[in-house]
Design a protein that fits this description.
Layout: E1 2-4, H1 6-17, E2 25-28, H2 32-36, H3 41-52, H4 55-61, H5 63-70, E3 80-84, E4 95-98
Parallel strand pairs: 1-2, 2-3, 3-4
Helix pairs in contact: 1-5
Length: about 100
């Protein structure tokens, strides 16, 4: 699966939640800043409330949370990719590929 912005987040989330159904996922500019920053906390809280309803619901689908809780189910082969044209790195063990 490949997705851009929100659908990139969805592709990565689906792979992490259902690694037996989906084999690989790539997210292009998939909103990782909401997950790991840099973002002002007031902006983060507003976006979480608007797009996810509650912080608890956001955390169920949060990419870094899913990597921690379900990442081992992906096995040893690289199956999750995050592409970012801005060149910002991300935490939580994603494979990051950047274009200048």
């Amino acid at each position: 699966m490949v997705g851009f912005i929100k659908s990139g987040w969805g592709a990565m989330s689906l792979l992490l939640r259902h690694p037996d159904v989906f084999y690989r996922a790539a997210g292009w500019d998939a909103g990782i800043r909401l997950n790991t920053g840099p973002i002002e906390e007031s902006d983060r809280a507003e976006r979480i409330a608007r797009e996810w309803g509650t912080a608890e619901n956001f955390d169920k689908y949060r990419i870094s949370s899913l990597i921690i809780s379900r990442g081992m189910k992906l096995g040893s082969e690289t199956r999750l990719f995050y592409y970012n044209v801005g060149g910002r790195g991300v935490r939580a063990g994603l494979t990051v590929l950047s274009q200048p």
